[in-house]
Amino acid sequence: MSEGLPPGHGPSEFPAADDLRTTEVDLGGLVGVLATHLYSTPLVAVRELVQNAHDSHTRRTLEDPTTPYHAAIRVRGDAARRTIAIEDTGAGLTEPEIHAYLATVGTGYTRMLRDLTGDQDLIGAFGLGFLSAFSIAHEVTVTTTSHREPHRTHQYRSRGGEQYSVRPVDPRPHPGTVVELHLKPEHAHLADEHALREVLLRYCVLLPIPVHVGDDDQPVNDVPVPWRQDVPGSLHLTRMRFAASFSRTFEPLTAFPVTPTEDRTDAVGLLWVQDGGTYGSTDNRDLAVYLRGMLLAEDARDLLPSWAGFIGGVIESSRLTPTASREDLQRDEHYRALQQALTDAIVDGLYETARLQPAAWRRILARHGQELLGAALCDERLFTLLADDVPVPTSQGDLTAGALRAAGHGAVHVALGSGGGFEEMLYRAMQVPIARGDRYAVLPFLRRYAQLRDARIVELGSESGNRELFRAPEHPLAADEQAWLAAALAEDGEQLLPARFDPPGLPLVLVPDREAELKARIEDDQADARIPSAALRLARAFTARTDGTVRARLYLNLAAPAVQDLLAAYRTGHTGAATAAGLLRSLKVIMAAAAGSPTGDLTAALDGIGTAVAALTAALPDGLSAVPDTLPADDPHQGHQGDRA
Ligand SMILES: Nc1ncnc2c1ncn2[C@@H]1O[C@H](COP(=O)(O)OP(=O)(O)OP(=O)(O)O)[C@@H](O)[C@H]1O
Fold first, then answer.
1. Residue of 102, 211, 327 to mutate, ligand 1, most atoms within 8 A of C-beta
2. Higher pLDDT residue, 215 or 533?
3. Can you tell me which family this protein belongs to (predicted)?
């Protein structure tokens, strides 16, 4: 290290060369750490060994490009013997190479070869991967024949990796290597060939050399890769087939390509929209990243935009830098450039789908409508694409914003409350669909839609929205009328507001004050236990500004004939005025209970109806007022007599 420091420029106390000591390495400890802690799953060992087998083929072709040979990799599992064997017909190793590369931690031939030849198909870099074999095996043997000495075969054998032996064995018929792992008992299940097939499909899907499991003739990696030029047949079908064979959990609805952008990224690959019941908060992003054909990061979801919870994909790039465990990627400028490129690829892909595959587009909208609402808000181009197509949840089922607007006579209606409530009841009466503003992304999406399409938006539950719905009356009521109506119709905490609104058949509507509701909830003692104290303090500071005395506003519809008649009765001193008011009050309480914002006393309200009916019927002229106690003997309804008794 001292040569790196120019004389006189190093720290003055830096020791002279003779004082320098070599750092000791506790090989046993290091081997243990590398083998057991570097990788997140034991399966990575299988990946590392297949990768070495692949590199040995590349090495053989580089060193001897003219002699043809059958390049293949075969992985066998033997559950009875508890072994896995990885065989290749690649370059093999001579005895000195076993010592120098295989058995020397941190040195490999592969990296040197890549530096020498510039060949980008070589995967190995760190000289560590082989060690991972000891994370799942208590003993490893490597039987290898170098293509340079095809008549000499050597066997490396080690328990634990710290010490090893090498001896000559009977020559094998052709160059290549067999790595045999004697699995630790806890990893015995890895010898199952079914499981190996599944894992190797993902690990090796992009490797050009065929990888077989057991005695299979068919390689696990024989699915045509759509972005490799020589794929025959329809590109769309090839893409769908690739996506379907790769995607474990979801059927693909459509698939679109990732293509390199000269200035930004070299990544190529495929993305697809997953089928499946996904909801707003569900993140099913699934991206596998390959480097030189080998799986580098199984779950690189962070490369996809956070709104794309329905996207799966496979990409390869040689600009990304793996970590030493080769399970994750360095977050460098190439990583960030790729993130942007993938976002663009998804948006482009969705545009193409909308344009060219209407049936697939409809399925995507139906399956992922909620998520797309949110996605549209994150990306301007996506918003333009989706604004008129994406379904919005409303009180009348899913509707596009355009349909919502048309049904709302030019205005987009959205409820701020948490579903149900008086809003829904009122709108049902008005027969206007109301968007569910409490659902994921609905309110901001509609606000943006209204702004862009120059539509009127009525936000029900906000002060301005309510003002728009409940218009001021043409003539204010006289003070005594207002006082009489308030006493007759409103409970404590309800403010009576004369108004005009649709439909005229609806005489009154009780609108809870959402802020007062919040204040009551926040000030509830129990809130202390549920909300973190800092958040509670903030929330209370906000609600302190709310005058909680008005719990709800009772809008009285002066356009309703029932209300006009009630007022006329009051003005003329009609004896039925109080009874009629009692009926309306009962109606209010019953409607509020049905809308989920109870007020007053429901039992009393129900009784009130009986009282009112009795009072009204008692007021009828003699002869019509009484229902006969018994029916005449020849009455055809005689059978009901018993019911009445
Ligand atoms: N199946 C094989 N055939 C021929 N040589 C092999 C084989 N497996 C390993 N080697 C040799 O052993 C060396 C060390 O392998 P190891 O897996 O530890 O590291 P690496 O592949 O070079 O790098 P990395 O840690 O990135 O995988 C390789 O560079 C290669 O020279």
1. 102
2. 215
3. Belongs to the heat shock protein 90 family.
Same domain, 303 and 247: yes
Same domain, 460 and 505: no
pLDDT of residue 537: 61
Distance CA 73, CA 87 (A): 6
Residues 361/367/373/377 CA torsion (nearest 10 deg): -70
309 shares its domain with 345: yes
Query: Is 222 annotated in some ligand binding site?
Result: no
Q: What is the interface pTM, i.e. ipTM, of the complex?
A: 0.98
| Overall number of domains in the chain | 4
Q: Is 48 annotated for ligand binding?
A: yes
Together in a domain, 465 and 484 = no
Q: Is the CB of 143 under 6 A from ligand 1?
A: no
Percent of the chain with pLDDT over 90: 49
Q: Which of 36-50, 62-76, 290-304 has the highest mean pLDDT?
A: 62-76
Ligand-binding site membership of 177 (annotated): yes
DSSP state letters, 277-338: ---TT----EEEEEETTEEEES--GGGS-TT-TTEEEEEE-SSS-B-TTSSSB--SHHHHHH
Distance 56 CA to ligand 1 centre (A): 8
Whether 318 and 399 map to the same domain: the answer is no
Contact of 485 with 564, CB cutoff 8 Å: no
**What pLDDT digit, counting tens, does each position of 182-191 carry?**
999 999 999 9
- Asked, for residue 533, whether it belongs to a domain, the answer is no
Is the same domain home to 241 and 270?
Answer: yes
Residue 388 has what pLDDT?
93
Q: Can you give the residue range of the structural domain that contains 438?
A: 387-469
Q: For 35-82, list the strands marked E by DSSP.
A: 73-78
In which band, very low, low, confident or very high, does the pLDDT at 532 lie, cut at 50, 70 and 90?
Answer: low
Q: Helix and strand tally (H, E) in the chain?
A: 22, 20
132 lines ligand 1 (CB under 6 A): no
Residue 306 lies inside a defined structural domain of this protein: yes
Q: Tell me the per-residue pLDDT of 86-97, one tens digit each, with 9 for 90 and over.
A: 999 999 999 999
Amino acid at 601: D
Mean pLDDT of 406-425: 78
Stated as kind and residue range, the H or E segment containing 536 is: helix 533-543
Q: Are residues 50 and 136 in the same domain?
A: yes
Question: Where on the phi/psi map is residue 634: left (φ > 0), alpha (ψ -120 to 50), or beta?
Answer: alpha
Share of the chain above pLDDT 70, in %: 81
The pTM is what? 0.71
Q: What is the CATH number of the domain that holds 584?
A: 1.20.120.790
